[in-house]
């Protein structure tokens, strides 16, 4: 079994047991994923987004009971913390070495001398205190301190709302010389190595898993369940550990795989799943010569 496959199963097992032990309530009410401004793993500046960023400035509640670890930002002078990129934020510690981080709060409603915070306690109100402008809502993050990774909050949140349908209508192939080919069915390409990308359509949802098969054999599966620090940068897991600059070479392109096309008929199949397991599939026939 290849090493990247082993890593995929190890991460899946870890997250399975974590989710069996703990299930978080939502930190604020949402009617659907349209109220999430930016999803985990999307491009944020030139790095991966590590949070769920909500679009509405509403009351924020603790998703689970926990120990108060820190209050950060301009409203926490009594604790001596300096301003951070999270803006006003509250950090709670939970079982299984998990931290929940509630950032970009306009106001904080937590007693700085408290040690224990009950589940569904009001922590403050979402606002616009973080370094980003234009996001007037909560930045919610889950961190596994033991394994030094950031977890997609949707894995642990209960009752995930229906997501927007993910679009995979436009695929491009890029050879080692940097030539770009727009894929369509029954096209012919030189038999060489290509990196494949999907064009990111606006407001069409964020993938949880992207996988590519050539002639029925899977050659890549990239998961957006956790961000792991490698070479001092955050990465997602697939055949390799990919940094944001590799997954998103441009803001509207998402990396899918690098593979060599053999001479003859090649069936290229892309499958994209959302967090609820809903799958979208696109298949092309490519003739290589």
From TrEMBL:
InterPro entries, per the entry: Dup_hybrid_motif, Ig-like_fold, M23ase_b-sheet_dom
Annotated M23ase beta-sheet core domain residues: 78-147
Residue spans crossing the bilayer: none
Pfam families per UniProt: Peptidase_M23 (PF01551)
Name of the protein in its database record: M23 family metallopeptidase
Organism field: Candidatus Treponema excrementipullorum
